[in-house]
Design brief:
With 201 residues, the chain is an alpha+beta fold. The chain folds into two domains: 94 residues, Ribosomal protein S4/S9, N-terminal domain (Ribosomal Protein S4 Delta 41, Chain A, domain 1, Orthogonal Bundle), CATH 1.10.1050.10; 87 residues, Structural Genomics Hypothetical 15.5 Kd Protein In mrcA-pckA Intergenic Region, Chain A (Roll). α4 packs across α5, α5 crosses α9 and α6 packs across α7.
């Protein structure tokens, strides 16, 4: 199961955002990593800006280059705005839906729960993080996994209303994808048009 396993705080400092969730290091070192990070004022090229936006999207959703490229090509061949469709495809990934439902505190934790067979889709165990959830499908916690501390802690006090495209039933620990979110509803700070421009070069 391919995934990014490098230093996460370094990446968060590079983009100046909590890419992998809340990162305390940003409050102490809000400048790029490296020996000259605090003094670097070098102007980034247009290509560099577009590349950085793609990298940010990949790190945010925990997708490696080949998967990301495949998602982009599918989005480019679909009817609609390519960048928006790309983000919607990323949002529909099972690991992301598990994270959005509050079952896991981070996407990396959600990916692990899926991989370890703690998550079901329409009542059947699915252990593929990249599985694309369709509107109307039910994503839940496997019966014998409902007592897991990591899941209970993550769900405690979680505000499900901030993601209106999802519905959550606390008693049965299941959520439903009501519809694919509109771009305006997706909270990630990603300029998807730059990613489209990069791949179009």
């Amino acid at each position: 199961m391919a995934r990014y396993t490098g230093p996460k705080s370094r990446i968060a400092r590079k983009f100046g955002e909590g890419i992998f969730g809340a990162d305390k290091v940003l409050s102490k070192k809000n400048y790029p990593p490296g020996q000259h990070g605090n003094n670097r004022r070098r102007k980034t090229s247009e290509y560099g800006i577009m590349l950085a936006e793609k990298q940010k999207a990949k790190y945010t959703y925990g997708v490696l280059e080949k998967q990301f490229r495949n998602l982009f090509e599918k989005a480019a061949s679909a009817n609609g705005i390519t960048g928006e469709i790309l983000l919607q495809s990323l949002e529909a990934r099972l690991d992301n839906v598990v994270f959005r439902l509050g079952i896991a505190p981070t996407r990396a934790a959600a990916r692990q729960l899926v991989g370890h067979k703690h998550i079901t889709v329409d009542g059947k165990v699915v252990n593929i993080p990249s599985f694309s959830v369709k509107p109307g499908q039910i994503v839940g916690v496997r019966e014998r996994s409902k007592s897991l501390e990591v899941i209970a802690n993550s769900l405690a006090g979680f505000n499900h209303s901030k993601y209106p495209w999802l519905e959550w039933d606390e008693s049965s620990k299941v959520g439903k994808l009501l519809h694919i979110p509109e771009r305006a509803d997706i909270p990630e700070n990603i300029k998807e048009h730059l990613i489209v421009e990069l791949y179009s070069k």
